[in-house]
């Protein structure tokens, strides 16, 4: 039943190195939030990945470990209004007073009960910065 789901599902967050691959990528790692729901026909995994498009998110499946892994890079995207309002030449001149949005590389892995799901039919879509991965039973 639903009460035993925690015993079967193992989620973990593994970190990449803290050095950026190039200067356009943020340093460090982040841990985006996901929800996991179960129904009669399968599981649905939802993750908030603000500012990302579907082609910027990697969703991989591992048939041997029954794992779905989601990875990518969250960047701080600065709206043009910030630079215009500050009257500065570029965004590097802007002084930030609050910086609550998390940026960095991320990798989240979700392990499902062995034999309980069909890894060949896993699908993923994304709308308005929310990733939805369906893992059928």
Key words describing this protein structure:
A-crystallin/Hsp20_dom, 137 residues, four-stranded antiparallel sheet, elongated, mainly beta, 8 strands, stress response, single chain
The computed structural class is mainly beta
* Overall outline: elongated
The percent range for strand residues is 35-45%
End-to-end C-alpha gap: 14 Å
Contiguous uncertain segments of 5+ residues? 6-23
Q: What integer value in Å does the Rg equal?
A: 18 Å
Q: In this structure, how is the largest beta sheet organized?
A: 4 strands, antiparallel
The helix count comes to 2
Amount of helix: under 10%
Mean pLDDT across the residues is 78
Order of helices and strands: HEEEEEHEEE
Describe this entry's structure for a reader:
This protein is mainly beta and 137 residues long. It contains two helices and eight strands; from the N terminus they run αβββββαβββ. The strands form two sheets. It has a four-stranded antiparallel beta sheet. Strands 2-3-8-7 form a four-stranded antiparallel beta sheet, with no helix packed on it. The longest helix has 7 residues, at 80-86.
Question: Brief description of this entry?
Answer:
This is HSP20-like chaperone. By secondary structure, this protein is mostly beta strands.
Explain the layout of strands and helices:
Blueprint lengths: L4 H4 L1 E4 L20 E6 L2 E7 L9 E5 L4 E8 L5 H7 L17 E8 L11 E5 L2 E7 L1
Antiparallel strand pairs: 1-6, 2-3, 3-8, 4-5, 5-6, 7-8
């Amino acid at each position: 039943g639903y009460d035993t789901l925690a015993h079967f599902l193992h989620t973990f967050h593994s970190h990449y190195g803290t050095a950026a691959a190039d200067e356009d990528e943020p340093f460090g790692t982040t841990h985006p939030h996901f929800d996991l729901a179960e129904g009669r026909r399968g599981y649905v995994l939802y993750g908030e990945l603000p500012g990302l498009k579907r082609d910027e998110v990697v969703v991989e499946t591992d048939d041997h470990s029954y794992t779905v892994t989601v990875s990518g890079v969250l960047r701080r995207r600065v709206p043009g209004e910030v630079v215009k309002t500050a009257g500065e030449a570029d965004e590097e001149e802007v002084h930030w007073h609050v910086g609550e949005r998390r940026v960095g590389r991320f990798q989240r892995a979700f392990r499902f009960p062995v034999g309980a799901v069909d890894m060949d039919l896993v699908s993923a879509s994304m709308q308005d910065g929310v990733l939805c991965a369906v893992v059928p039973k």
